[in-house]
């Protein structure tokens, strides 16, 4: 059950007795998979539109994204770590407009443009509507299209937790971002450069200019030169965003100065015995306060979100194929189709699609 501004106007009311329904469509278009497998398991379906339960918001989705973990989840490789109920609607990033809230959530949220990183095991945002725990929500940036804001969520939080939280990058440090051409890397480079560090980044030709424009002082083409040969002196921090072999990982760790930090989102590093190098394996967590800080940086012009492509949601299977083939760079944003949005608008859903 949920409450919406169609039934109660305006004020912030907590713990309001829920009203039975919201206006608008009772179904929604979504992408789901009913079994693990190749991208072909992703199918477009019509599902009942969910209702916001206690502590939740119903969001009319403007954008979601592709992340490498989406493909791994779909293939079934993470079934034990992230057990999802099948059928499962994928998509861990969401931006959109709150159209209703459940019990205990402020009505002030209704009508707001928001962004969130969703729990991995819950139904995701590859749909016209998504349920979002209210505690995970941050206000969306005002300065970029609402759909693109989805690209900030899990990637921005991963970069923040690597660069700011775990590595605590400071002015004057040298930071190596391995895998800077991807969604996390583009933001990690900017956060490290903004902290005053000298950023060394690995990227291939297609991402070189974007990575340099985001603040990397040196860009190493990993397709031409092994990173270890190109890094002339030790670094304070390595942020590893590439699925490296144990040997490659050890080589990257060896580039870290005494007292420095190796943070990996992929292959774990092992700190050399007898040193004070730290090796951190990062598992990103949803954090609305950190996301709000990232949003502020976007709106102050201090952080750019590198959206490399936008696709209709119905092309999610193709996007998964491209992602698995290594043919994507930056962030890819997917949007529910406008035709269907228009139909639903006329059905009285309200909201303001950008
Ligand atoms: N542990 C966690 O909580 C967590 C959270 C988020 C992400 N991750 C993982 O972290 C990794 C990065 O995530 P992402 O979203 O940024 O991925 P992504 O957007 O898919 O990264 C794609 C980029 O990887 C770059 N790349 C591929 N092979 C490379 C290599 N050998 N050396 C340097 N760069 C290479 C490519 O750069 P070019 O365009 O320059 O070729 C490509 O643009 C993924 O493995 C993801 O699963 C983990």
Automatic annotation (TrEMBL):
Domain of life the protein comes from: Bacteria
List the Gene Ontology MF annotations in alphabetical order: oxidoreductase activity
Report the residue ranges that make up the Enoyl reductase (ER) domain in this protein.
Answer: 37-334
Q: Provide ranges: composition bias, Basic and acidic residues.
A: 338-354
UniProt xrefs under Pfam families: ADH_N (PF08240), ADH_zinc_N_2 (PF13602)
* Annotated coiled-coil segments of the chain: none
Q: Which SMART domains match?
A: PKS_ER
Per the record, where are the segments of Polar residues compositional bias?
Answer: 1-11
- In residue numbers, the region (Disordered) covers 1-27, 334-354
Q: Which InterPro entries match?
A: ADH-like_N (IPR013154), Chloroplast_QOR (IPR052733), ER (IPR020843), GroES-like_sf (IPR011032), NAD(P)-bd_dom_sf (IPR036291)
**What protein is this chain from?**
NADPH:quinone reductase-like Zn-dependent oxidoreductase
